[in-house]
């Protein structure tokens, strides 16, 4: 009962925080008197009257309109979103420590996956529907290594990451001639989907074979027993976020090097980069290799969180895209933020929403949490309605 | 020759089946229904993606919707008109056995027609609704959104049990059995109805494609802004196109549900009803309905031959031939996209504007498709 009230309040705060952000956008877009600096401090006085019922409806209507009119988030509004999110995540961690830890683990994986997706999108400008396949390569490697050698899952990084990099480069080599030919976007997407289907076939065939001849099972298997313990905590809860942070740091440092600068130049303006003598194809190949590596790492860690199958990446594709879009497909650091945002929304918010409905209407929680796969697609639709270039995109 | 290559492949497949001593009558009947259903679905994909340039990677949504209507809604109506007090999803076996006793052939025919109408209406509504994000999104974002929408029917159907029984699914009301009887007669009847509906859809889509509306769609594919110059609202045009596509694909979903005789939400996943239709379209030639027909013939031949010889193939390759099918179809799609991007029967380029000076007089009609729009 007490939980329900808290969750209700928390939810209203988050939802209206976003709405108010939207209002700010509307004000800016329509040149109304605009709020000088929308920060959490200015948001709270706006939120409190929302609980007084007579004005609630009209304000809600205005907020909704604001959300739909607003065309982009300014830096200060992004800050508001970040602050509201941080406050919510902090509160949740206090009341749901276990679920919050799970959310951090899932978010780390999601952030890596979204990072790879965004990076690949930036180069060849095609949403990579085969990103799930690259993740599956990592998943299958982890399942194989852990079960065949009885070692902790992390050893699979040695196989899974190179395999995912090779797969990503193979896909890049398929896409490159199409990209150069100026093929329509939908045909390029279809090509990535076809590549993905080939991989689903290959990995499932391998899973059949491994199950029969090596006794390695790959359908509905979790690798939590093959985790290391750090103190009394399963290692994944610490190692996965640390890996994501390290990956982001390395990527940041790489982008400062000469090769990284060339890559950024190629992404920024391909023709201009070419005239400066930058080998654009090679720069893109490096980006795809990094994307593959990120996907490989994410894939290896995934069975530590859920029960994996050889096509789990394909089933979770909407989640990856939601994270990537929330980060605004144009920014790789946005993808990291988007990964954490969507990771928390998908796990914690779904749970809290279910708790709220359970408290308010007595609906059993599992009936709501079963719809968790719909959360990413709702998020995609909402984010794109609020801001067609993504929540954190420029 | 190119126009009949699909037919040749299909006949060769049938000859192979007959020559190896399999039941070729059953093969022909099964493939006839497959052909009809995939033809109908792919024609709608072709209308949206091939002709109008809307990248609908969520085709499975409206197909599943049609099947749900055929099972969940029409099933309940059938229970209602026969005066039963059973819940169609919860007491499915009892309801279906009561229906096969009580339903008259006339009622069955009426319910079948009603199923088509309802599915078309709902499919049109959902198709129009899913076009709304298209008002503001560019092609790539739209494709992602539609891909994500495509899963809605799958997850809702799986989790919301009153709809079509959740993970267990429901048996479809026995309409074909009541209309045609059991056994071979049912198969022949199902094939006849499916093919007739598919032919109607073909004629309809072909007519749309050659109408002023169809020409506007082709302009939209090349450049949506050009359309607004011509005084047409691109968003409205997309809405109508996706409504038509949604309605027709939902009808195909009804055909599928009654042919299979059951509605299992788990069956409505992206590969079967989004990837395969896209593959067929790319294979046959985007923007060309005749190409789609050829693509369907080739696809169904491979698909069914893999099924007919699954034990032999499984013994050779050592894994479930389903995965071999995935590899083959994926590789086929890649090969076509890379080597013959215009497909087996390329769309005949009809110049929308007067030939420009640089191209010279004769060259424009052949250069359009290669440039890639």
Q: How much helicity do the residues of chain B have?
A: over 70%
Number of helical regions of chain A: 17
Portion in beta strands of chain A: under 5%
Average pLDDT metric of chain A: 81
Give me the strand/helix succession of chain A: HHHHHHHHEEHHHHHHHHH
Question: How many DSSP helices of chain B?
Answer: 17
Q: Span from first to last CA of chain B?
A: 26 Å
Shape summary of chain A = globular
Which band does the percent of strand residues of chain B land in?
Answer: under 5%
Strand order of the largest sheet of chain A: 1-2
Rg on CA atoms of chain B, Å: 21 Å
Q: How many domains of chain B, as an integer?
A: 1
Radius of gyration of chain A, CA atoms, in whole angstroms: 22 Å
Mean pLDDT of chain B: 89
Secondary structure tally: strands of chain B? 2
Structural class designation of chain B: mainly alpha
As a percent range, the share of helical residues of chain A equals: over 70%
Q: Which ranges of chain B are low-confidence, i.e. pLDDT below 50, for 5 or more consecutive residues?
A: 357-373
- How many strands appear in the DSSP assignment of chain A? 2
N/C terminus separation of chain A: 42 Å
Oligomeric nature of the chains:
heterodimer
Question: Short summary of the structure?
Answer:
With 394 residues, chain A is mainly α. Chain A is built from 17 helices and 2 strands. The relative contact order of chain A is 0.15.
Q: What can you see in these coordinates?
A:
The complex is a heterodimer of chains A (394) and B (373). In chain A, helix 4 (75-95) packs antiparallel against helix 5 and helix 10 crosses helix 12. Chain A is globular, with a radius of gyration of 22 Å. In chain A, a hairpin with a 2-residue loop joins strand 1 and strand 2 (233-234). Chain A is 75% helix and 1% strand. The model of chain A is unreliable at 1-11, 18-42 and 64-72 (pLDDT under 50). The two termini of chain A are 42 Å apart. Chain A has 394 residues and is mainly α. In chain A, strands 1-2 form a two-stranded antiparallel ribbon. Chain A has helices at residues 2-29, 40-47, 53-69, 75-95, 97-124, 131-149, 157-181, 185-213, 236-256, 258-268, 270-275, 280-301, 312-315, 317-326, 332-361, 365-369, 374-386, and strands at residues 229-230, 233-234. With 373 residues, chain B is mainly alpha-helical. The longest helix of chain B is centred in the first third of the chain and has 28 residues, at 24-51. The two termini of chain B are 26 Å apart. In chain B, helix 2 (24-51) runs antiparallel to helix 14. Chain B has one domain (2-308, 343-372). Chain B contains 17 helices and 2 strands. Chain B has a two-stranded antiparallel ribbon. Chain B is globular. Classes of the chains: A mainly alpha (394), B mainly alpha (373). At the A-B interface, helix 7, helix 8, helix 14 and helix 17 of A face helix 6, helix 13 and helix 16 of B.
């Amino acid at each position: 009962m007490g939980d329900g009230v808290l969750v209700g309040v928390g939810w209203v705060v988050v939802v209206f925080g976003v709405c108010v952000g939207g209002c700010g956008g509307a004000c800016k877009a329509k040149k109304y008197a605009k709020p000088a600096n929308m920060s959490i401090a200015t948001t709270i006085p706006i939120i409190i009257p929302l609980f007084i019922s007579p004005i609630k409806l009209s304000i809600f209507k205005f907020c909704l309109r604001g959300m739909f009119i607003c065309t982009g988030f300014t830096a200060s509004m992004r800050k508001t979103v970040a602050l509201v999110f941080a406050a919510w995540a902090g509160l949740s961690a206090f009341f749901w420590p276990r679920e919050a830890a799970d959310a951090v683990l899932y978010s780390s994986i999601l952030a890596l996956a979204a990072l790879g997706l965004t990076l690949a999108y930036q180069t060849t400008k095609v949403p990579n529907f085969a990103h799930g396949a690259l993740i599956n390569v990592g998943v299958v490697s982890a399942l194989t290594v852990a079960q065949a050698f009885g070692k902790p899952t992390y050893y699979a990084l040695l196989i899974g990451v190179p395999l995912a990099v090779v797969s990503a480069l193979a896909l890049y080599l398929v896409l490159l001639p199409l990209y150069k030919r100026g093929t329509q976007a939908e045909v390029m997407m279809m090509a990535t989907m076809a590549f993905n289907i080939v991989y689903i076939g290959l990995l499932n065939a391998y899973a059949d074979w491994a199950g029969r001849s090596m006794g390695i099972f790959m359908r509905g298997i979790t690798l939590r027993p093959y985790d290391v313990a750090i103190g009394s905590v399963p290692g994944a809860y610490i190692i996965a976020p640390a890996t994501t942070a390290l990956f982001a740091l390395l990527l940041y440092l790489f982008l400062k090097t000469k090769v990284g600068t060339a890559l950024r130049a190629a992404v920024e303006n391909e023709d201009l980069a070419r005239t400066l003598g930058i080998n654009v194809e090679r720069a893109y190949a490096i980006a795809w290799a990094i994307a593959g590596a990120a996907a490989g790492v994410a894939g290896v860690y995934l069975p530590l969180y859920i029960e994996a199958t050889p096509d789990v990446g394909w089933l979770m594709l909407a989640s990856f895209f939601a994270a990537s879009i929330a980060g605004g497909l144009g920014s790789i650091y946005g993808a990291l933020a988007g990964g954490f945002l969507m990771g928390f929304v998908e796990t914690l918010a779904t749970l809290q929403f279910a708790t709220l409905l359970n408290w308010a209407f007595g609906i059993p929680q599992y009936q709501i949490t079963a719809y968790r796969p719909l959360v990413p697609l709702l998020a995609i639709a909402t984010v794109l309605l609020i801001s067609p270039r993504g929540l954190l995109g420029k | 020759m190119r126009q009949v290559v699909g037919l040749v492949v299909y006949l060769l497949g049938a000859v192979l089946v007959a020559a190896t001593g399999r039941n070729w009558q059953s093969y022909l009947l099964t493939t006839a229904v497959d052909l009809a259903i995939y033809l109908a679905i792919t024609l709608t994909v072709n209308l949206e993606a091939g002709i109008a340039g809307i990248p609908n990677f969520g085709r499975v949504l409206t197909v599943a919707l049609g099947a749900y209507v055929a099972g969940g809604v029409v099933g309940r109506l059938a229970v209602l008109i026969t005066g039963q007090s059973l819940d169609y999803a919860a007491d499915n076996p009892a309801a279906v056995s009561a229906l096969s006793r009580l339903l008259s052939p006339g009622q069955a025919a009426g319910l079948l027609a009603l199923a088509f109408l309802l599915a078309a209406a709902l499919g049109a509504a959902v198709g129009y609704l899913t076009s709304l994000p298209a008002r503001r999104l560019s092609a790539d974002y739209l494709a992602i959104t539609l891909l994500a929408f495509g899963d809605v029917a799958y997850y809702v159907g799986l989790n919301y049990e009153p709809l079509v029984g959740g993970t267990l699914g429901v048996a479809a009301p026995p309409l074909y059995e009541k209309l045609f009887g059991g056994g071979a007669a049912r198969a022949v009847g199902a094939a006849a109805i499916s093919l007739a509906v598919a032919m109607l859809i073909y004629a309809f889509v072909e007519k749309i494609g050659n109408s002023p509306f169809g020409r506007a769609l082709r302009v939209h594919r090349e450049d949506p802004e050009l359309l607004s110059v011509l005084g047409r609202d691109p968003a409205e045009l997309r809405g109508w196109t996706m409504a038509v596509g949604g309605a027709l694909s939902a009808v195909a979903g009804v055909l599928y549900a009654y042919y299979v005789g059951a509605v299992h939400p788990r069956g409505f996943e992206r590969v079967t009803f989004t990837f395969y239709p896209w593959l067929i379209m790319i294979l046959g030639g985007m923007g060309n309905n005749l190409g789609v027909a050829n693509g369907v013939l080739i696809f169904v031949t491979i698909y069914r031959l893999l099924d007919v010889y699954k034990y032999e193939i499984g013994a050779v390759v050592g894994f479930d031939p389903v995965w071999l099918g995935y590899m083959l179809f994926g590789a086929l799609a890649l090969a076509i996209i890379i080597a013959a991007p215009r497909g087996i029967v390329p769309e005949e380029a009809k110049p929308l504007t007067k030939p420009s000076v640089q191209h010279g007089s004769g060259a424009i009609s052949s250069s359009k498709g290669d440039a890639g729009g």
